[in-house]
């Protein structure tokens, strides 16, 4: 018998490309059709057939306090009752901007937008305007949204689909983007020397999340800071995932390296569409209406999004939240590791706080090439076995898993029992 999800997917595929509004949601790499979600609560999502899953996707990062948190709901409902958009400044924007600038060391001024993609493309425009240069450096497997300049050797869905870039991005634009291996400072130096005087910006995920989680080696971020300083290149941290995920104040706080510009998204919107970019005042004051660099948005600073973001960040600001997230991420990954070890299954786990990826490989994973040594067939088996036991994982080897404050020790225990069976299944 066909499930309600399958029925909806058939209909959706006639109406939307692949039946989805964002490619990885179609579960193609998993060889199955996606679940259509009816609602979510705490650490659980519930599909249209009534199946309840323990959720490790968290809407790809934003749901750090869990789904439908009462405080977030209350804030959004209150905001909605006062009207959903005015296209005019509001007190909530001032409050969120103040909170972000206070928490994130690299932010002296900030501009709120509607998505991470908007944040990164605007930050690059600013960097190009400020330096008068055209080229940018990024890293293989780094994903910074779907803007033309950034779809070169990109991670996330681009990687899962196995395409190097995207048709429709003109060669002239793609050629302005130089992509090198993550954690490879020599490659960065070479690129900077080869394109001397032409590099406007270097953009990096300070903890990579879109080729699966890859941690920066100890000298990597300080090295990037130094190399950019020597050549007056604008250093951009794309903290769309890591901002308020790996620490209050983001990866720049955790690793003690301050970028010139920072991009935020995901967590700071608490599940509503938000992005932000900001940084040095002298740079941000080049944005219109103060300066000549144009960027605008009809729904930017939307009252519902501000309310959800503020409520989420206020919960995160309570004492002990990041310790709790760290403990949960640590416990879960250590236990899975131990199980795999007992079964002699090749498995590597990269984790920073409550974000992590389990790679089915023997090889340490410090860059894209090493991530690609993973046995994706085995991941697919693992994914399917977990789903059958009510655990919902990212439908790709090359994505981050997220734990939220709402995941209880019993939830994690349940996921570990499922994990033990799933690992046996894919031995
Ligand atoms: C998700 C993501 C983006 C894009 O954000 P959207 O809101 O999906 O446009 C950019 N950078 C990183 C690091 C991301 O993970």
Automatic annotation (TrEMBL):
Its EC number is 5.4.3.8. InterPro entries: 4pyrrol_synth_GluAld_NH2Trfase, Aminotrans_3, Aminotrans_3_PPA_site, PyrdxlP-dep_Trfase, PyrdxlP-dep_Trfase_major, PyrdxlP-dep_Trfase_small. It holds the Pfam family Aminotran_3. It comes from the Bacteria. GO terms for biological process: protoporphyrinogen IX biosynthetic process. It is an enzyme of class 5 (isomerase). GO terms for cellular component: cytoplasm. It catalyses: (S)-4-amino-5-oxopentanoate = 5-aminolevulinate. Transmembrane segments: none annotated. It is found in: Cytoplasm. GO terms for molecular function: glutamate-1-semialdehyde 2,1-aminomutase activity; pyridoxal phosphate binding; transaminase activity. Homodimer. Belongs to the class-III pyridoxal-phosphate-dependent aminotransferase family. HemL subfamily. PANTHER family: GLUTAMATE-1-SEMIALDEHYDE 2,1-AMINOMUTASE, GLUTAMATE-1-SEMIALDEHYDE 2,1-AMINOMUTASE 1, CHLOROPLASTIC-RELATED. This is Glutamate-1-semialdehyde 2,1-aminomutase. It comes from Desulfobacca acetoxidans (strain ATCC 700848 / DSM 11109 / ASRB2). The gene is hemL.
